[in-house]
Each structure stands twice: as C-alpha cells, then as structure tokens.
Amino acid sequence: MIDYEAVFHAMPTAVALFTTDLVYLDANDAYWSTSGRTRRQVIGRYVFDVFPDNPDDPEASGTRNLSASLRRVAATGQRDAMALQRYDVESPDRPGVWEERYWSPVNVPVFAPDGTVALLLHRVEEVTELIRARGGADRTQVLEADLYTRARELQEVNEALRLAHAREREVALQLQEAMLPAPSPLGHHRAAVRYRPAVASLNVCGDWYDIVDKPGGERTVVAVGDVVGHGLRAAGVMGQLRSALSAASLVADGPAQALEVLGRYARSVDDESATGTAACVFIDWAGRSLTYSSAGHLPPVLWHPDGTVVYLDQATDPPLGVSLERAERPEARTAFTKGCVLVLYTDGLVERRDEDIDVSLSRLAHSITRHGAADPEQLADALLTDLIPPAGLTDDTALVVVRL
Question: What does the pLDDT look like over 5-56, one tens digit per residue?
C-alpha cells in the first residue's frame, strides 16, 4: 500500500494544501524550505495573513492574483496554471525587510467523494534566480526580463477576457430569461419548466423549451431544442428557432411537419448556430395520445402510473439544418392514460463526459421512476437534484414536465 503522506512530503517541488477558505492544512518539506516558514508559523492560518503583499510596493498584485486563481478553482473545479508572479516575501530573519521573489504557481482542485471541491492543492516553483538580474545587461538578462513582462501581459489579457466573458454570460442569461417565459395555464393540466445555465461562463443559452395550445384547446404542443454554440449569438438564434417552431406548430398537422418547417427555416438562417436538435410532441387530450418526432434530439420520456418508463424513440431523424434525403420527417404515436407524465429535456441534463449515453438515460429513467407520482413542479426539482452533478452543469439544460 502506498503511503501518500510520505510521497507528499518527499516531493521535490513545493506544495501546500488549503481549505476552500484558503486556510493552510499542510505543506511539504520543499514548501517550508522555499518559503522560509515553519509549520508552526503557517498551519491553520489564512494564507494571506502569512504572506501579505509588500506594503512598500504600491504595484504589488501577488495576493490579488493568487486569491483570484484559488477562488476560481474552488468555484469551478478546474485547474488553473498562473502566469509568472512577482510576490515579495518578508525575510524570516529580518522583520520589515522584503525580498524580491518570483514564482510559477499552479492551483488544482481536490475532490470529495461526492464530486465537490474539498481542498485546494497549490504547487509553486520559485524562479527568482531565472528572473533576477545577475550583473550586466547581457542577452540572458534581457530575455528573462522579457519573459516576465510577457507573462504579466498575458495574465492581464486573460483577466480582461474573463471579465468580458462574465459580462456576456450575464447579458445572454437575461436575454434567455426574457425569451423563455413561464408557460401559460393548460386548462386543468399541470406543467413545469426549468432552465439551468452551465457553470462555465460561455456554455449557456443554446437550449430552449416551448409549450403552446393549438386553436380549440384540444391539442397542446410541447417542444425542447438545443442549438449549436453558446453565448449571445446562440441565445439570439435560439429565440428565432423557438419562435419559428411555435408559429409552425399552430398550423402544422403534426410534429413531423412542424419540424420540417423549422428545418427549412434553420437552413435559411445565415448562422452556424442555426444547426441543432429539437423534439416535438403533440398532445391530443381528447384522444389520449401523443404524436411525436425528433430532429436528432434525445427521446422524450413517458412515465405510466404503474411505474413503467417508455422512451419515445420511434421517430428520430437528422438534426435541424441538415438536408434530408427523404421528403418528410417521421412521426410516431403512442397512447397515454390519465396520470401519466411526459418529460422533455436537453442533453445537458443527462450527458456526461466519458459515459455511455445508455447509462445516462438509465439514470434519468430511474429518477423519473422514483418521483413520477409527484406534482410536476416537485418532479422537475427532483430531476435536477438527482441529475445535476455536484460540480454543476457543463452545458445548459432545459426541462419540461407535463402531467397528462
């Protein structure tokens, strides 16, 4: 059995372990040697109480940059390799004397069994001797100074991009919210809708849903879709496709015809985001039947009161924007009884990296089986609780639940 504690302390590179509140839990021998501190001086303390910025340097940014990186890793669960940093350290032997130091840090999440970020691993290599002038403006010194300058510039550009992405995400989410309102009442039938954005700053606003009653009130159209791309452009295209399908559904004889019209419209839109997938279901309340069609989308799910779960997967065709060899898209019909539940969703709810889609769909079916008897609002919340990973969604998600 490997003694990982011994490995940790024997590592030649300086490594420290923080809580997500940036408090020291441990560090290895190389860290103590490099930092000039002892365990007694550090363990249990907030990192920036131990290593504050140099008060004599008004341009010092080490604490700000390191704090931003560590908190980003804690929030996203993603590794962050920082640019070269100048981070002066107070001399352990001469209080008030600050030593010019340069570092190359990498911050890595350590996950708990439930997938949440439990700890932060901070690996740092000192590169002071590489950066510091060693006498004479020789070529090596010039290259070293240029390396540091370019690293700082890259860090500033990256930070500006993060802020720009955050602003775009906020605008895109507001646009998404405006275009995906709560559904109108469906008579005495109950429905719930949900939209959840991805954790990543730009992986949002490609998914949509729609619920519309056809004239006469005897049929209701339920649809979900997912366009290619993310961000503001995808949000704009999403709004176009959702509106186009909503309009087509009001006059189409069935979901296949509605999706065929939508596909033609998508091919006329001069934007690569217009390629995507969609699933459409026509609910016939009087005839107690569902007519459905899918344009490359994951199958809707029908839950029966006896606990049976059926995937509506008998009418699937290529995605939107793809020219079809056949003249018409397929559609299929299935019966339902009072108390059944129809669930439509986008791939962000179920798909996981390095996981077979059958495993993902099985997890969805199991969750619906457990909670199928619940009210649609409760069922929608239960599905999100069961299926969203602890670290958050990597793609945005739309969900529709209708009690039939």
Answer: 888 888 899 999 999 999 999 999 999 999 999 999 999 999 999 999 999 8
- CA–CA separation, 138 vs 269, rounded Å? 58
The CB density around residue 170, as the number of other CB atoms within 10 Å, is: 12
Q: Which two tokens stand for residue 253?
A: 């004889």
Residue 258: φ, ψ to 5°: -65, -45
Kind of pairing between the strands at 289-295 and 316-317: parallel
Backbone angles phi, psi at 68, to 5 degrees: -60, -40
* Closest of 328, 172, 163 to residue 236, by C-alpha: 172
Contact 371, 356 (CB under 8 A): no
Largest CA distance in the chain: 90
Count of other CB atoms within 10 angstroms of residue 84: 21
**What average pLDDT is seen over the chain?**
84
Q: Which of 320, 236, 235 is nearest to 279 (CA)?
A: 320
Per the rule left: phi > 0, alpha: psi between -120 and 50, beta: everything else, 169 is alpha
Q: Where are the alpha helices (DSSP H) in 280-394?
A: 357-371, 376-387
Q: What distance in Å separates the CA atoms of residue 26 and residue 340, rounded to the nearest whole number?
A: 55
Tell me which DSSP letter residue 296 carries: B
- Which sign, positive or negative, has the C-alpha torsion 273, 266, 254, 214? positive
Burial class of residue 216, CB neighbours in 10 A (0-12, 13-18, 19+): exposed
The Cα 282–Cα 212 span in angstroms is 10
Q: Token pair 């019209």 is at which residue? A: 261
Asked whether the predicted pLDDT for residue 359 surpasses 80, the reply is yes
Question: Would you say 81 and 152 are in contact if contact means Cβ atoms under 8 Å apart?
Answer: no
Write the burial class of residue 327 (CB in 10 Å: 0-12 exposed, 13-18 middle, 19+ buried). Answer: exposed
Helix (H, G, I), strand (E, B) or coil at 183: coil
Q: Report the C-alpha gap between 293 and 223 in whole angstroms.
A: 10
Q: How far is 267 from 328, CA to CA, in rounded Å?
A: 16
For residue 158, give the 3-state DSSP assignment. helix
pLDDT of residue 370: 94
The answer to whether the beta carbons of residues 293 and 259 sit under 8 Å apart is yes
